[in-house]
Amino acid sequence: MQILETSRLTLRELHPDDADALSLVLSDPETMRFYPAPFDRPKVEQWIDRQIRRYANNGHGLWGMVLKSSGELVGDCGLTVQEVDGVSEVEIGYHVRRDLWGQGLAAEAARACLDLGFARLPVERIVSLIRPENLPSRRVAEKNGMTVWKEVQWHDLPHLIYAIRRERANSK
Ligand SMILES: CC(C)(COP(=O)(O)OP(=O)(O)OC[C@H]1O[C@@H](n2cnc3c(N)ncnc32)[C@H](O)[C@@H]1OP(=O)(O)O)[C@@H](O)C(=O)NCCC(=O)NCCS
To answer: Which residue among 8, 139, 161 has the greatest number of ligand 1 atoms within 8 angstroms of its CB, and so is best to mutate?
Structure first.
């Protein structure tokens, strides 16, 4: 199912057949340097299953990022629910295949997900949880008007919580 469209991308629900294409993203050691380890094939399959459960339970999750020009699945971007300091927050997350970094694809997809999130969900803010040393991810958040709200320990590691409030997102 297609979720949204930007000038260069469509975002659609992931399905089990996406495991090959998504492995090129999530099994790449450089892409996954802020995770405990790159994903092996079973982890990629579990990752897809988790998103499919999220679509059913929450109506959203990380969606597949497809390049319109080639039809290739080149990453993911979407909305998930995360517990931060005991509060449920809607988070924007993204991963892009490494050979396509630096072309603005993550920012383009994330912007569209922010708009969709505020349009569909009754939330006053949307966040991104980002390791302080993850400068490209921080830049994506900042390009979309997010600012650092607070720093927390999350999964035992320091994370910056970037946030944008509904009224600010609507005014951009
Ligand atoms: C984070 C990620 C999705 C960004 O994807 P992308 O499509 O390259 O993102 P964009 O092109 O929209 O923006 C990246 C920005 O970071 C900047 N950047 C890249 N490396 C940087 C660095 N070392 N220091 C500072 N800025 C950097 C780019 O110049 C660009 O900013 P600009 O448009 O102002 O020039 C991609 O790097 C990725 O998949 N990383 C691994 C997964 C990950 O960390 N996901 C986020 C988890 S919180």
So the answer is: 139
